[in-house]
Every structure is written in structure tokens, then in C-alpha cells.
């Protein structure tokens, strides 16, 4: 019955999957230099400032989890089964998922018993510990960029913020002194190529592209050759995301990754899956489909600032056994942050 909390109608799912990406690019007529997001990451942004932005971005999730836990424990005078059941409901509605929630609650019971905890007010601290441990099980925030070039393949359905994430990752890497090249491998979505070119112009990064509707594998092949010849540090490739046509998507991505496997043998590679945090448990189903095509090495969770159900961060990494590499907590360039479990949970519970 609890699983019905996450069930969506086929019609709703088709509507979500067929939406074209409506991602943030500079408005028409607005120069890249004048864009609100053009602030360079790290420029005037301290570590404390980044933590503050993370806290601000997690405000809705905090209200959905920690604030509710605060109110709940205050209403109890002892730790009993009613407390555990109410906490279970809080975690499920925050999109931790049924399986992850049940596991966390079982661990909490054990921790309470082991520590001989009797004060309900101490439950929040124990929950914080367990959530951190759950995330650290598969934590690996660093991108594998050891070779020249290194290749980052970015996949995800239309509408999740894939191209915007690519632009922000590229800007971040260039700010770290790396030579970056972009490949416009999503040749099917209207405007995708132009959108990536705008991001490239904003950061002074070249984009390898073909005409709209051309073979994505050919684009990626040309980009790999260009990256090698130009001594590029990192090549980031966009890909198609037409999940509503699963068979064609699988075929298209299969061809692209076959080229990458052949041409990038011995090179450092990442396959990042971009997921929209606001879609909740539906994001896990998307991830499973993409895992049929390639070994996903990391997750990018966008739009966390737009949902009270940020528990998806915990459930998606735990269920898929894939680390969250980056999270998006706002529209500014520095709002796409490297994911550190302790920092994330600290911001959530602070």
C-alpha cells in the first residue's frame, strides 16, 4: 500500500518523458557577460558561502524531513513503536523510498537498543548518523579525470536539466584550469545544439557539432578525435534523452557508447546520469533504464531546491549502488556542487 505513494499513471509518465528540456540559458538578446549566472565559481564565494547556498537550497527538504522530525519527537515522552511508525511515514513521504526507509528504521531500532537511548529528543541525532552512513556507503564525489583527454558522457531524459548541468560542469572545470571541449551529441531535441553552443560561448569553450538530426555517434567520434588532436583535458558529451521512445533511445545510446569504448580505450571516463530530484521515485526507474545501456559511474541530481522530497538523494544512491557526484541547489553556476555526504546531511539538519 505504501508503494502507492509513488505510483504514477502511465499517462503522467509519458507526459513527463516527452517534455522537451526547458533549461536555463541566457535570455534572447542578453549577452553572456550580462547573465545573472555569469559569476565565476569561487569568485567571492567562500566555503562557508557555498555551505550557506546548500542550506538555502535544501530549505524545502529540511521542512519535509528535519522540521517534521523535530515536531514529532517533541510530542513523545518515550521511544516506542508509535514513534518509529510516525518517523517511517515522514521518511517515506520525503521520498526515501519504502526499502531504504524500512532499512533505516530497522537500523535506528538497533542503534536505540545498543545505546540504551530512552530520550525521544536523541532520535534526531541517531537518524542523522544513519543517513550519513547510508550515503557514505557508496560515496565517491571525485570525477575520474586522470588522463588527457578524459571523457565525461552525460545521459538523462529530456527535461531534467542535462544540458544546463553540462554547461555548469564545463565552466567549473575550466575555472580549475582545465582545457575543456563539448560535444553536441543530442541531435534530436529541437534547440539542443544551439543551447549547448550558448553555454560554450559563455565560458569560452569550443563545441563540436553537426546538423540537427544527424548521427549522434558521428558527432561523438569527431569530438573524440578533436579532443585528442587539440590536447584537451576533458571532453564532455551531451546525448539524446527521448525516453518516450525507449527502443530507439537504447539503440542510439548503444551506438554512441560503442564508439566511446572503441576510441577511448585506456582513457579516464565517467558516465554521469542527470536526474530531476522533483520527480522522486520515478527518477530511480529512469536510472534503471539507462543502466541497461551503460555502466553509470555517477549521478547528478538537479532541482533539489524545488522539492521537499530531497530524500531521493539517499534512496537513489543506496538502491542503485551508484554515488551521487553533483547536486543542483539553485540556478547560479556555483549552485551545482560536488556532493559530500557529511556536508549534505549537516546542511539538512543544521
What brief labels describe this structure?
single chain; 350 residues; alpha/beta; eight-stranded mixed β-sheet; 11% strand; elongated
The tally of strands reads: 8
Shape: elongated
Radius of gyration: 21 Å
N-to-C SSE string, H for helix and E for strand: HHHHHHHEHEHEHEHEHEHEEH
Which blocks of ≥5 consecutive residues have pLDDT under 50?
1-24, 26-47
Helicity, in percent?
40-55%
Structural class: alpha/beta
Beginning-to-end CA distance, first to last residue? 33 Å
The average pLDDT value, as a whole number, equals: 85
User: Describe the biggest sheet?
Assistant: 8 strands, mixed
Order of the strands making up the biggest sheet: 3-2-4-1-5-6-7-8
What is the number of helical segments per DSSP (H or I, 4+ residues)?
14
Beta-strand residue fraction: 5-15%
General description of the model:
The protein has 350 residues and is an alpha/beta fold. It is 47% helix and 11% strand. The chain has an eight-stranded mixed beta sheet, with helices on both faces. α13 links the parallel β6 and β7.
Amino acid at each position: 500500500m505504501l508503494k502507492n505513494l509513488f505510483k504514477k499513471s502511465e499517462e503522467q509518465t509519458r507526459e513527463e518523458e516527452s517534455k522537451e528540456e526547458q533549461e536555463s540559458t541566457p535570455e534572447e538578446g542578453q549577452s553572456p557577460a550580462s547573465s545573472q549566472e555569469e559569476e565565476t565559481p569561487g569568485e567571492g564565494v567562500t566555503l562557508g558561502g557555498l555551505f550557506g547556498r546548500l542550506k538555502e537550497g535544501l530549505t524545502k527538504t529540511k521542512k519535509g524531513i528535519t522540521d517534521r522530525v523535530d515536531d514529532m519527537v517533541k510530542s513523545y515522552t518515550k521511544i516506542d513503536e508509535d514513534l518509529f511508525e510516525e518517523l517511517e511515514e515522514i521518511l517515506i513521504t520525503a521520498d526515501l523510498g519504502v526499502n531504504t526507509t524500512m532499512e533505516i528504521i530497522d537500523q535506528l531500532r538497533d542503534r536505540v537498543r545498543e545505546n540504551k537511548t530512552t530520550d525521544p529528543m536523541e532520535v534526531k541525532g541517531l537518524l542523522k548518523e544513519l543517513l550519513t552512513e547510508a550515503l557514505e556507503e557508496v560515496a565517491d564525489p571525485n570525477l575520474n579525470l586522470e588522463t588527457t583527454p578524459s571523457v565525461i558522457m552525460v545521459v538523462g531524459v529530456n527535461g531534467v536539466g542535462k544540458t544546463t548541468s553540462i554547461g555548469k560542469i564545463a565552466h567549473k572545470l575550466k575555472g580549475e584550469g582545465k582545457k575543456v571541449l563539448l560535444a553536441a551529441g543530442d541531435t534530436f531535441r529541437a534547440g539542443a545544439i544551439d543551447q549547448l553552443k550558448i553555454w560554450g560561448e559563455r565560458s569560452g569553450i569550443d563545441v563540436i557539432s553537426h546538423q540537427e538530426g544527424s548521427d549522434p555517434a558521428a558527432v561523438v567520434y569527431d569530438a573524440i578525435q578533436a579532443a585528442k588532436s587539440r590536447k584537451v583535458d576533458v571532453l564532455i558529451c551531451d546525448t539524446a534523452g527521448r525516453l518516450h521512445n525507449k527502443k530507439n533511445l537504447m539503440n542510439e545510446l548503444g551506438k554512441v557508447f560503442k564508439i566511446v569504448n572503441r576510441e577511448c580505450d585506456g582513457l579516464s571516463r565517467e558516465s554521469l546520469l542527470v536526474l530531476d530530484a522533483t520527480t522522486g521515485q520515478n527518477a530511480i526507474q529512469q536510472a534503471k533504464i539507462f543502466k541497461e545501456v551503460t555502466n553509470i559511474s555517477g549521478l547528478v541530481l538537479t532541482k533539489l531546491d524545488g522539492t521537499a522530497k530531497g530524500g531521493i538523494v539517499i534512496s537513489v544512491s543506496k538502491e542503485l549502488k551508484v554515488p551521487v557526484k553533483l547536486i543542483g541547489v539553485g540556478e547560479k553556476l556555483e549552485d551545482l556542487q560536488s556532493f559530500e555526504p557529511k556536508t549534505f546531511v549537516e546542511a539538512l539538519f543544521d
